[in-house]
Amino acid sequence: MRIIKKIVQNFTRKQAKYEAEKVEIFPFSNLDNSIAFSSGVLANYSDYERLYFTSVDAATAIDLIAHYAITEISFSGDEKDVEIAEEFAKRVNLRSRLINDVRMMLIYGNSYEYIANDENGEIVLQNLNPKMVTIKVDKYGEIQAYRYQPSKGVDLPPERIMHFAYGRLGNSPYGYSLVHQVYGDIVLKQAIEKVLAYIAHRMSHPLLHARVKNPQKIKDVANLLASRIKDNSSSVEKIQILNEIVTDEGVELQVLNPQLDISGIVRALEYLQNKVDKALKVPRIFYGEPEGSNRASSYNQIRIFRLFLDSLRAIVKEEMEKKLFPALNIDVEIEFEEITTEEEMAWADIAAKLYEAGIVATDEAREMIGLPPREEAEE
Fold first, then answer.
1. Counting CB atoms within 10 angstroms of each CB, which of 43, 179, 208, 359 has the fewest?
2. pTM for this entry
3. On the CB side of 14, how many CA atoms lie within 13 Å of its CA?
């Protein structure tokens, strides 16, 4: 009976046919010249770029992530193919190029490397300015071409474009910047910092109240005090201070203490800083500050950060193995070394800081840098 039942099941599976037509994801698109999502994505690029150059938080985090994500490179596969891959990597300075690609991917959300041929027919890479790249898709959401337009547009084939995209959402062909969600908070934090700097500078030269016994001298004293501080509220650098005030004994000066809630402003900055730190992914311990009040928070954040780095490497790995290596006519896999000598020192320094702060125990710190527990080491 079991045999008959199995035969019937196999026969049924073989006869079953399931077919489904593609759904028109973008029914509005024109197959010849439609550019999807370009206005919404590309409009933000200048803001992201400006933030990277003006925000220490954004620049430090992005640079650190890029260097930790792209460690030393190695290839595996056929010996001859590996040799070709290594020669190519050396010729185009592949690691430095990929660090720059990851940096651009985190700033803009997208980084593009065009796989071209030089005058001798050799494969070369050209980094395309993300602000000049738009993506053409068909009504099914399939990428038809990458349009590059420094002067006049030229359509580049998708199989020749390594597109490193961060934070893709839904069926959008574009990625989104690492700072996309926290852009407003960083801008607000910068504004508060400027105001706080101005207040601190201004409060170091407080307002004075003058009591003048002789009414005829009131105007002269007022002019003297008015010329003491000349400022422009839009620029701290333009504040000019006159420290010497000379009057006769008929003038009494009193310092007016402003009633400002500086502690409230500081708390607001701390709140914004915590949001920025979470969005930019880098644990504070990487900046030399033990993160969290207990061992679990710091320890887990470092592990999560490593997983984040692995996700970025996966993006790079997938594009290279799908597009670059076939163009080189080789079959290899690219791998990124987990820890280089310099990084071992960095991780050791982080483990030491966490131990000194009482956040992790000795054996936990040893585990972070790949060492066995003390008892096993003594054996």
1. 43
2. 0.72
3. 6
